[in-house]
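Annex B.
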Amino acid sequence: MTDAADTTGHGRGRVRQLRLVVEAADFEAALTFYRDVLGMPEQESYSGDDGAEVRILDAGRATLELSNPAQVRFIDRVETDGGRSDRIRVALEVDDTAAVAGELVDAGAELEASARETPWRSVNARLRGPAGLQLTLFQELD
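VOC domain-containing protein: predicted structure tokens.
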């Protein structure tokens, strides 16, 4: 058994990194959107045979949020105007949800729900980004 997370939320478990792997048919557009527009710095890159390409972008700290169906329905009521969460949704903490959402829409993302304050003291917006990813932008208020 591994050590549990301490009170700061930083665990000493076996997993050292959470990496979300996404197949992007329009690789260059997705790379431009997530790296250049959203501002996720390139950490590593690899090229292979037959034009194979991968870019690993730094997203800061990673967590895995597990929610039961009742919680997902509650989140959907709070964060959207009737929208539904994908089974897997990418949530990204930013400094200014409304501003970043606007920049991402200008860069081609589809706005699914405008920025709004939640009961848990954050400002959240929901978008559909390149490679079909459903994104929640959140800004902590406390």
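The mean pLDDT is 93. Residues 109 and 129 are 5 Å apart (CA to CA). Further annotation is deferred to the next reporting cycle.
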